[in-house]
Amino acid sequence: MQGVPWSSVDTDDKSSNSQRVYRMTKDQILSGEFRGGQLLSEVEVATQLGVSRTPVHEAFLRLAAEDFLDLVPRRGAVVVPVSAQEATDLLEMRLALETAAVRRLCRSAESIDTLFGELTELVERQRHGAAIGDADQFAAADDAFHRRIVQVAGNTIAGRFYGSLSDRQRRMMADAARSDSARLTELIGEHAELADAIGRRDVAGFEGALLAHLEATYRVVLA
User: Which domain of life is it from (predicted)?
Assistant: First the structure.
């Protein structure tokens, strides 16, 4: 039986290292551990992860293509801060997609009671995350809360598009949670209000509550 050529093994290792660096660096950006404006050194990241500079450079190129990093020649890359325009664009898209999802759900209400129970459980996960000071758990529950609304509505095109917003949504929520711990309690109350509006089949009430919720969250991020 022939062995795997060394060149193939080497290529596979490089690809695996690049993917690992990409995933870990992106997670740290989305969680807020790497903040907007922070300089990331290719040498330092390579040393920390025990890899050469090549997979780090490749990972940085991918993140730059996704607008999370600005490359700095011979130094590394700077984490791109969340801009006011990006926050506004995301707010408008989320408001449109989530309100349309609730409107669709209310036309065929079979799934609403089940969804209400799921959202209530996710609010409790947020409450637990806030109580133990776990911003990542809180942000994950927040993402799941809003994503579930769109998923249950059953519009596959809307679901795919909403999924493409998930990374930026997660990043802004993590920033909000880290920037203002008092805001966490308010967010939990706002999510409970959103779930109640869905349970009442109140589309207008949901839309108004969602707009206030998103605007308040983004003000914290951009302060």
Answer: Bacteria
